[in-house]
Amino acid sequence: MNNDVINILTMAKVIQTAVAPVFLITGIAATLGVLSNRLARITDRARQLERKLKVSVDEVFNLSLTTELRALLKRSRCIHIAFSLSVLSALLVCAVVMLLF
Hints:
mainly alpha, 3 helices, 101 residues
């Protein structure tokens, strides 16, 4: 086989290998969409609970609202961490693709 043909085949395999992780970025983008929607729902629910907390005078009910708000805060922190790690993973995939080229 000619040396030029071998170089072309090698280059084709390298390009194929470099493009494969790009599909992972699509999955990461979908995950980011899901996480942002969940964060939006948590924010909406927290605002609702805060409004109820301002107008309510029942101590037991206020305690349950406060407990739920704390749970929502924990969820939002976890989502923020997941969001940050997802963005980091997308950046690392991009770095891998750039290194392969």
